[in-house]
Amino acid sequence: MSPQLSNQQLIQLAEEFGTPLYVYHAEKIKDQFEKLTTAFASQDVKFFYAAKALTNINVLRYIRSIGCNVDCSSINEVNLALKAGFEPANILYTSNNIAFSEIVEAKDLGVNINIDSLSNLEKFGRKFNHSYPVGMRLRPNIMAGGNLKISTGHGESKFGVPLEQIDKVLHTVSHTNLHIRGLHIHTGSQRCFGFRKRDRSAV
Question: How far is the C-alpha of 59 from the C-alpha of 100, rounded, in Å?
Answer without folding.
Answer: 30
